[in-house]
Specification:
Length: 379
């Protein structure tokens, strides 16, 4: 498996790096947070991303996309993460676009994919029902009444859920919580009668919501994929999301590390640059090594996804585990090496610590994926 970027992927990475530096520096995120922006991302900035073609990276050319693959969108997320760029890229250009492209009917693709490409709609995937990620524990139910599905239940911590136009919802159509079978996916307009959102205030100040479905009636045409096979379908979608989130966490960690290195080169104690202290050099070297290992695992996962590897599940869990642990380490060390000022709002480095604590939990913590990797490996 190759662990290098193609010419096209490198071009996307460079474009994203320049865009983030020029259009969405960390101060952009800070401004949105301080102004209590309701969706925590700028609609004009999003349209600029759409104009660059980023919303259609995973979408086939027949529907207006570019079909540059998981590696293409992952390197964009990695670079945007370095400046904490808030946008619907992850929930829409990765999760929504992939789900509908891979599992949607022809009618669903024709209806929704061009709108995603053109930036007319955003999406969110609603999976979890508690603070612990485990899709098969879903209790939310869908019953059939008058030839329609009626949804009843609640989803929690939905990424970009507060602003999404379209929701991809995992529900139980048969069986009991914990059963691997009996799950189905539905595409639900967030403006449907009976859908209500509760915006959450999270440590990283991003866009999350709890979403309540009260007697929501939808047509059978809104079923995504085959009925009762949603467990397998959602795992595939989540694995793609886990790989993309791993790339984003890698970008967060790289930025926190680079910021800390610059501080070590400038800060003096007792008239001496603290970067000359051997103990800090050793800790910086450890961070560097962990970052290199993380790059390899993320690269392997995103190329494995594009090559439709049989090892995709293990690659996704490995990347999510390593990226989570590395970001946790680097964000902690960044704060420690900055000293007391590291936790003040004046310094950007604290944002990466807050982001790490939330990103680690998205679609499964390191503990969840360590256990999953072991189970997949036969242990």
């Amino acid at each position: 498996m190759k662990l290098v970027l193609s010419e096209e992927q490198q071009f996307l990475k460079d474009t994203a790096k320049n865009f983030a530096a020029e259009r969405t520096p960390v101060n952009h995120f800070r401004s949105l947070r301080d102004n209590a922006d309701p969706v925590l991302w700028d609609k004009d900035i999003w349209q600029e991303m759409v104009a660059l073609g980023w919303s259609g990276i995973l979408i086939p050319e027949d529907f207006g996309g570019s079909n540059f693959g998981i590696a293409g969108i992952s390197v964009i997320l990695q670079e945007c993460a370095k400046t904490l760029t808030p946008s619907p890229l992850f929930a829409t250009a990765v999760l929504g676009a992939y789900a509908i492209t891979q599992f949607g009917t022809k009618k669903q693709k024709e209806k929704y994919l061009p709108q995603i490409v053109n930036g007319k709609i955003t999406t969110a995937v609603a999976v979890d029902e508690s603070s612990h990620h485990n899709p098969i524990n879903s209790e939310m139910k869908a019953s059939i009444k008058d030839d329609k599905y009626v949804l009843e239940g609640k989803k929690t911590f939905v990424v970009d859920g507060a602003s999404a136009d379209l929701l991809i919802v995992l529900v139980r159509t048969s069986g009991n919580p914990g059963d691997e079978t009996g799950l189905s996916l539905f595409i639900v307009d967030s403006n449907e009668e009976g859908v209500s959102k509760i915006k959450l205030d999270m440590a990283d100040s991003r866009n999350y919501a709890n979403i309540i479905f009260s007697n929501v009636s939808i047509s059978k045409d809104q079923l995504l994929g085959d009925a009762e096979s949603g467990g397998e379908t959602i795992e595939r979608i989540l694995d793609i999301g886990r790989i993309a989130m791993s790339a984003e966490m890698l970008g967060n960690a790289e930025a926190a590390f680079e910021t800390t290195l610059e501080y070590l080169k400038q800060r003096k104690q007792f008239g001496v640059l603290i970067g000359t202290f051997q103990a800090l050099q050793h800790r910086a070297a450890e961070m560097f090594c962990e970052l290199e290992l993380t790059k390899s695992s993320v690269m392997a996962a995103m190329h494995g996804a594009d090559e439709n590897s049989n090892e995709l599940q293990r690659l996704a869990s490995l990347a999510k585990t390593i990226a989570g642990e590395t970001l946790h380490l680097v964000s902690n060390e960044a704060i420690q090496m900055h000293g007391g000022i590291g936790v003040t709002d004046e310094y950007d480095v604290g944002f990466f610590l807050k982001r790490s604590r939330v990103a680690e939990q998205i679609f499964g913590s390191s503990k969840f994926h360590t256990e999953r990797y072991a189970n997949l490996s036969g242990f």
